[in-house]
Amino acid sequence: MRALILRRLLISIPLVVVVSWLTFLLQQLAPGDTARAILGEHYTPEAYAQLRHQLGLDQPLLVQYGHWLAHAVRGDLGVSSITGLDVGAEIGTRLGVTLSLIIATTVVAAVLGIALGTLSAVRGGAVGRAVDVLSLAGFALPSFWLALVLVTLFAVVLRLLPATGYTPFAESPGDWLRGLILPVAALAVHGLAAVAKQTRNGLLDALGRDFVLSLRANGASELSILLRHALRNAAIPVVTVIGLVFVSLLNGTVLVEAVFAMPGLGGLAVQSTTQHDLPAIQAVAITFTLIVVAVNLLVDLAYGWLNPKVRVR
Amino acid sequence: MVCRPVFAQRSRSNKARLVVLLAVAALLSVACSAKSAQDSAASTRTLTIGLPAAPPSLDPAKTTGNGQPFMNLAYDPLIYRAPDGQLKPRLAESWGYVGTGNTVFELHLRSGVHFTDGSALTADVVKANFDYLRKVGVGTAGKVARDATVQVIDPLTVRLTLTTANPDLPTIFSQDTMPGVISGDALANPDQLASQTRGSGPYVLDTATTVANDHYTYTPNPQFWDKPSIHYDKVIIKVIPNPNTALAAAKTGQVDVIAGSYTTVNAAKSAGLTIAYTPFTFMGLVLADRSGTVVPALRDVRVRQALNYAVDRQKITRGLFGDYGTPTEQIQLPGRSGYSDRAVYSYDPDKARHLLAEAGYANGFTLPALTTSTANSNLVVQAIADDLKQIGVTLDVTNDADTAKYQQDMRSKKWGAFGIAFGSLTTHLMAQVLLLPGGFYNPFDSNDPELTALYQRAAAAAPEQRAQLDQQVISHVVEQGWFLTVTFSPSFYYARSSVGNLTVSPGEPVANPIEWHPAQP
User: Fold this and answer.
1) What's the whole-model pTM score?
2) Model confidence pLDDT, tens digit, residues A133-162
3) Is B133 on the interface with A (CB under 8 A)?
4) Mind giving me the DSSP string for B353-418?
5) Is A246 left (phi over 0), alpha (psi -120 to 50) or beta?
6) Contact between chains at B440 and A43 (C-beta distance less than 8 A)
């Protein structure tokens, strides 16, 4: 286990470097640059040249990247080219929002998805078909549209939940929870559909195996067979899907954070990209990379817990 | 049958009870927090404003446009532009040009004003502000500072001497272009201004409860020189980029005032919100290639006039903005110096074809045009394209979604025309950007000696002559067909009934939150 964790952490270092370099290169290819974004219609060739020099943009690309990397390895992600605010602090402020959204959505998608998938596999028939149809609908519905519909219905018409905003948990757990209900609902539908589908397929396969017949012959209850044996056997691909759902939510939060005006990393990603704010873009890319690395590690650890044979390898 | 140990049964039922208890606790905290939020809002006078974007910096020297409301709360300008467009004393109690020619200007400051850090407003502080603007100012105020020599005449009098005439200094020193005067002590360490406020305005930013680009909380400034004009115990500006979300927040009472748009105005009206709107930016095409470099046809004034006759401004305005738009053929707002009531172009496609034929383009021509999605100027350009097609002119439109790319391409001289949404400045300031060689939106550096002479005469003119000269500038540009202007798009604000005095006008289309107050029941 320790070896696995150490291996993953070591692999993440070159991964982060590659991602940061690719992000840096891609931003150079994008139209416009930071100096133009700042000057806007106050652009003059002289002001542009002066600002580029101030921001270090007139240096060779490798020098610019090397300068950034030398600071980043010391934990200094720099300051925003646009706002002048410390990028690390900005990430810290926004990370909690995005993680709250992603973790809550993943938990909801996992719990409800497993429940629905189990129900569908066990009951079959009309219930199974209904779950299939709901799963299909869940894949098809765009989360952005669903978010707007939920806001209109639950916030504007019914006045049950807030339309916008995010309250930190430490400030008010109740407001934090209320503020998450609609965005989580909008985001969870896709993940729930994927988890339900995988659970159903996995359980159907497991419940048809010989060991289940043996357990039934030995007098084990259906509930015990389902929860202690079949579900555990079906769990590995479900855990994989849950991990993929978590990672895909890093993209999904961008639109939903915009709809609900939540100050998360998604909003920072969009804002820094459109403003050509290179330090902020780099910091967001690295943060997302580290989150993906952490999630993949957790998924591997979960495999080990679910299937002891995996631990031996 | 498998018997389970008794402790295993009790353990499962305890877990189930714990889950139920946690769920009940969560529901109770959700319900209680909603009630406590309502009670809290009722006991303090809090104004919550929803705006689509935050300024890149809270430093007033580096902020224009979107940032104005953020600055208005914490900083006082030298001169105040009231909602009706009139200029009124603020940190400067009086001001004026010295002599003739509009190159020497004096400001006489208000006494007894202190910044939030306790330091006093003096002429030396104002001079330090201009020195700072000279270094970092990106807008018009920065340009003036770089052109000006600033002298301290006495502790409360500042004199600026310019190298070129500028009749608009009172406007430039208002909150529209010079949002506020910064404390002299703060200027010793200006980096802090990116995230803190150091002004003399009615409110001060509460950094402890502010999250950059999400919400900004302001509390009353205990040092403010006009405390009776502070109407709220707290002002919160929330950044809500999505206009539908902003409208939902206003409908549900999460915010009291929002900046609106023509896409949501009917919904806002149906929801019973107060609507304040005014013409704000002119929209249309800049027929930039007046020398015919890439589009030879545009060299002929008859061609440019033909394009103006070909467009049905009423139809396009009604289609895009309904009752809220204002058709126009000129670039200056109604009621502002330079605006003319005299219409030059009627909708007359036959006349347009006749002019094209006279100029040798009876079969029409292709006009490559650049546009951008920003401010939806691409919608106006597409509407213009339909009308121009009727007279044989094909608008070959390229759309740049990215604003920086659009500005880069616009100045590349590859397109003879480009879409624009611009406003609202004085005629003098607009001329520098739109009309004179070297202006940002004059990429081909079109040079009309008659226009330049009019501009220079207006720049040096006394106020009583200026209005007529400004009108001549604008009329000349219209007659020469430098633009194919179609409509003024409005700025919108929506407010709940709890907020009073929300007004805008062509003279001041940006609403100022310091003017608002709790509405009388």
Assistant:
1) 0.85
2) 887 888 788 888 899 899 999 999 999 999
3) no
4) HHHHHHTT-TT-EEEEEEEESGGGHHHHHHHHHHHHHTTTEEEEEEEESSHHHHHHHHTTT--SEE
5) alpha
6) yes
Count of pairs with CB atoms under 8 A, one residue in A, one in B: 138
Distance of CA A136 to the CA centre of its chain: 21
Rounded CA Rg of chain B? 27
Instruction: Name, of A74-78, A172-176, A262-266, B158-162, the range with top average pLDDT.
Output: B158-162
Closest chain A residue by Cα to residue B193: A84
For A150, A265, A288, B386, the CA distances from A103, given in Å and listed in that order, are 20, 14, 14, 50
Q: Looking at beta carbons, which residues of chain A come within 8 Å of B403?
A: 32, 37, 40
User: Pick the residue with more confidence: B149 or A224?
Assistant: B149
Enumerate residues 235 to 254 of chain B having a beta carbon within 8 A of any beta carbon in chain A. Answer: 238-242, 244-246, 248-249, 251-252, 254
Residue B415 to residue B367: CA distance in whole angstroms:
8
A274: contact with B, CB 8 A cutoff: yes
ipTM: 0.80
* Cis peptide leading into residue A80 (ω within 30°): no
Distance CA A161, CA A163 (A): 7
- Asked if pLDDT for residue B507 goes beyond 60, the answer is yes
Give B32's contacts in chain A (Cβ within 8 Å): 174
Quote the percentage of chain A above a pLDDT of 70.
Answer: 96
Is B213 in contact with A263 (Cβ distance < 8 A)?
A: yes
Q: What is the pLDDT of residues B277-286, one digit of tens each?
A: 999 999 999 9
Q: What is the mean pLDDT of chain A?
A: 86
* d(C-alpha B411, C-alpha B316), whole Å: 27
The reply to whether A54 touches chain B by the CB within 8 Å rule is no
Dist CA A40 CA A57 (whole Å): 17
Domains of chain A, CATH where assigned:
2-72 (no CATH), 87-312 (1.10.3720.10)
**B192 Cβ under 8 Å from any chain A Cβ:** no
Closest by Cβ to A263, choosing from B194, B214, B403 = B214
Residue B127, both tokens: 């001079």
Across the interface, whether the CB atoms of B194 and A40 are under 8 A apart is answered no
Residue B294 DSSP class = S
Residue type, B449: P
- Label residue A46 exposed, middle or buried (CB < 10 Å: 0-12, 13-18, 19+): exposed
Contact A162 B138 (CB under 8 A): no
As to burial, measured by CB atoms within 10 angstroms (0-12 exposed, 13-18 middle, 19+ buried), residue A140 is exposed
C-alpha distances (whole Å) from B4 to each of A64, A212, A232, B11, B19 are 67, 20, 21, 11, 22
Could you please report the per-residue DSSP string of B275-291? EEEEEEEEEEEE---TT
Q: How far apart are CA B465 and CA B462, in angstroms?
A: 6
The pLDDT-based confidence of B224 (bands split at 50, 70, 90) is very high
Higher-scoring residue by pLDDT: B154, A14: B154
CB-based contact B404 A93, cutoff 8 Å: no
Task: Show which of residues 343-382 on chain B sit within 8 Å of chain A, judged by CB atoms.
Answer: none
- Say which of B30, B211, B213 has its CB closest to residue A174: B30
pLDDT category, B26, cuts 50, 70, 90?
A: low
Give chain A positions within 8 Å (CB) of B60: none
The whole-angstrom distance between B407's CA and the closest CA on chain A is 8
Which residue spans within chain A are E strands per DSSP?
A: none
Two structure tokens written together for B210: 């502010």
Question: pLDDT band at B28, cuts 50/70/90?
Answer: low
Put simply, the answer to whether B254 touches A33 (Cβ < 8 Å) is: no
Residues B117 and B223: their CA atoms lie apart, in Å, by 8
